[in-house]
Structure formats: structure tokens, C-alpha cells
Amino acid sequence: MNGPTTGRLKAVLFDKDGTLIDFNGTWFKLYEALALEFARGDKQEAARLLEIGGYDKATEKFIQGSELAAGTTSTIVRLWLGAGEGDGFDFWKARLDHSFTHDGSNAAVPVPQLEPTLRRLAEDGRKLAVVTNDVQAAAEMTISRLGVRELFSAVIGYDSVVNPKPAADPVHLVCAMFGLEPQEALVIGDNVHDLEMAHNAGAGAAVGVLTGTATRDDLSSLADAVLDSIADLPAWLAEQGR
Fold it and tell me: What mean pLDDT is predicted for residues 101-112?
């Protein structure tokens, strides 16, 4: 986007992992355990699964845009299993969805100033939504356990739409639920997929944050702004008169 369009942004659509919660602090141990389970206890194979999924051992971080950073349960299982259908695929998809819903929500580490930032936006009359490539049930449980569920008017997972991020479907679904046009919505996330979704949907603004897997350079060409975290969003909106 070449600078945000004009007009008030009436809705803010948040990515979950890396935006509302700290990515590495939340997901590394869980992915490590799941990879070891998938590899039947073979530590070398588990390390390989993490590597092909996007974990960079040298930096101890997940690569932005990789399956483990931005994919859905289906794409992760397809990568690890080498197949996208069959009993094995169905088993592991159900296993990962269950783990993401229960273990992931328990492990979630909120970004700094999560609750006061969301409350400030909501009190400013903006509708808030979560738009994630995680399963919807996991997102619901995570924000409930973080004590901020009441502040969100919608929670959209990859299983809520036909085409998940970076497709436009999640934004269009939320806007339809809110009775808004896409240009009245702001998308904020830590990954290129989030910003591509904003572009594909015709969102009013796309904002990147640095609390996840991407760098400023990764995001800047697609973003109207790149902020250190969501805590900077209310001030940015005020500065833009949006």
C-alpha cells in the first residue's frame, strides 16, 4: 500500500500469533514436542521436521512466511507427512488441532500492554476481530485465557473460511459480520501473509508489527506502517486522523 487511504477505520483485525501473543515464547516448546511425537521419539528426525517447517537453529527463531510461522494445521501436516489426504493425514491434523487448541492456549504469552491497548481501541468505538491461520477454537480459547475475549466481536480461524490467509476471505467475512466495507478495516499482523491478505481484500490500512517472525525490511514494502508492537497502534491511528 502506498500510504493509508482516508476515512475512519472502524474495525481492527488482528493476527494472533506474533501479534497478540509472543511467537517464540509461545510456540517453540510446543512445536518441539509435536515434532518429536511425529518423529516417534527420533530427535534427529524431529529436528529435521522443525527445520523444514521454518525453524532456524542458528538464530533460534522461526522464519517469517514458513509453515510453522504462518501456515495452517493442514499445510504443516502436509509438509511433515508428505501427503495431503488419507488416514494418517486426518489423524495428525486432528492431533495438531487438539494440541493447538489446548496446549497452545495454555502456553500463550501475551505481548506487552495487550489488554489496555485493546480496551483503548474498543473504547474508541472500533470493532475488534481476531483473524488467524490457527483453528478457530484455538484462537477462542487463547484470547479467553488471556482475559480479553470480551473485547473482540469476531474470531476467525482458517477453518472459518474457504480460503484462509493470504486470501481476502477472512477480511471480507469479518466486514460482512460488522456491516462494514473493507476500506473501513485495518489489518495488523507480524507476517507478510497478513499484509498480503489486507491488500487482496482492499483493506483501508495494513500495519506490521515486530513482535513475531518478520523484520522491518520484510514488512515495510507491504505496510502503511511498521510498529514495534500493537501498543503503538492507538497513537499511530491518532496521528493519521483515522
Answer: 93
